[in-house]
Amino acid sequence: MNKTTHAIVAVLVLSVMLPVMSCSYASAGVDSSVPMDAQRAARAGASPIWFLAEGSTAWGFSTEIPILNPNDRDITARVSYSLPVGADQTVFVPALSQATVYPREFFRENGFPGITGQNDYDFSTTVECLEGLGIAVSRTMYWNSPEAPQQVQITVSDTAASIGVTSPSEVWYLPEGSSKWGFETWLLIQNPGAQPASCTITYMIEGEGPKDIERVIPATTRQTFSMVSDIGEKDASIRVTSDREIIAERSMFRNARREGHESIGTRAPNWDFYLAEGTIGWGYTTFVLIQNPQPDPTGVTVTYMTTAGTLEETFEMAASSRKTINVNAAHPDLPDPDFSTRVHGSRPIIAERAMYWGSGTSERCHDSIGLAAPHRLFYLPGGSDWEGETWTLVQNPNGSSVAISVSYLPEGEGEVVSFTDVLPSDSRRSYPMSDRVVGSYGVVVRSLEGDKPVMAETASYLSEPGSGSNTIGGYAD
Q1: What mean pLDDT comes out for the span 420-437?
Q2: The whole model's pTM is what?
Q3: N or C: which end of the chain has fewer CB within 10 A?
Q4: Which of 451, 426, 447, 270 has the alpha carbon at shortest distance from 343?
């Protein structure tokens, strides 16, 4: 298939999906086996508005915000920052492309001095498509460790990325979190509303019990809370409940911030969670973090899916608890080192995955929350081969093979490149962006068989110093 054919296939695939994108809550019926909150969240996967609780141009951080426009018409996005004074910018995004926003450049060009006069702020962001069409928005952060040797200060210590969320909620769950083992964990809460939000932060401590902390988030602000200040050195999952709708994310750092990762939370537990990425090979260690927010014990089945077969394990989790699985240590005999994961609970649970590579001060990591269901379409902003590589990970959790298409949408105007593949049942495949395109691209993954949804994530790595980031995407059915 030549590039012209690729482009035609991409436009055909994307034009089929556009009616879904234009209606945020399109759905093919109600599944009584899924909690209603989880169904509502799933139907909101394609949206004209996105919220990003985390963001900073202070403390050595840089932030980028890729906006993916998978529609066949140009759009304009309004980007609003929660600064002490209001700050909005508008961004033009051509049809079938992505555009990347650089907040520090906007702050500098518009006279926002920041905390120290270096255009440095901690902020949350709201992105809205003014035409009301569905878009996808993520955030990538880069930083330098304050304790890295001076000669490497010009390089990036690590990077973290996360998709945004399409609506605030009164409840958020975050399975991962630790203030032990040299980690620092920060909870970021964005209140986009016009009234203060009273929040209860519940830490579900591994091996202990839950602990509640009360906080108030002023209107239209972002507040940051330290886990070690709240509960000391513990491993814990987090639940945030609020009297008003908010957004919650979590950031973790280690080794004097030489490494770190970040993720959104999820609005509701579910009987199943899916994680497309995972490996025990190539120098990686993978951890699966499971949160049981229920007041009763919960039976859990974890299924690891590889191209060479599946492996299952079962166990019981105590009420209001968190469990950590070191997959390398627990299952060194996986049929294939590269895997995807499905976590099933006898009661609704939440699952997340963290991956580490390297050792000592050279260790790096990335992380992502899972999703409660596979979907027909995924939108993954922010891919690039700039000084590194980007991979698209696609999981087929179905009992039979499924045909998919993967489309690369360029930064700015350019050609859409697309290809198709067939994934075996209960398997995962990885697609390097550099095999097809050069430059910066957003990615659209589509199941070509409507009754066989899939799961997709993106992972990006910088060649130096070997840092990486990972996130799920926006989605639609």
Answers
A1: 96
A2: 0.88
A3: N
A4: 270
294: left (phi over 0), alpha (psi -120 to 50) or beta: beta
Count, in order, helices (H) and strands (E) of the chain. 5, 31
Pairwise CA distance, residues 385 & 463, whole Å = 10
Is the pLDDT assigned to residue 115 strictly greater than 80? no
CB 340 within 8 A of CB 305: yes
Does residue 184 sit in helix, strand or coil? strand
Q: Give the Cα separation of 223 and 248 in Å (integer).
A: 10
DSSP string spanning 10-44?
HHHHHHHHHHHHH-TT--S---TTS-HHHHHHHHT
Single out the residue of 406, 410, 385 nearest to residue 394, CA to CA.
Answer: 406
| Per-residue pLDDT at 459 | 96
Closest CA to 241 of 299, 173, 292: 173
Structure-token pair, residue 210: 């839950």
Q: In 10 A of CB 399, how many CB atoms?
A: 8
Structure tokens at 339: 């895997």
Residue among 187, 202, 195 nearest 245 (CA): 195
Q: What is the pLDDT of residues 316-333, one digit of tens each?
A: 999 999 999 999 999 999
> pLDDT grade, residue 462 (50/70/90)?
confident
| CA 157 – CA 177 distance, rounded (Å) | 21
What residue type is 254 in one-letter code?
Answer: R
CA distance 196 to 244: 8
CA 146 remoteness from chain centre: 26
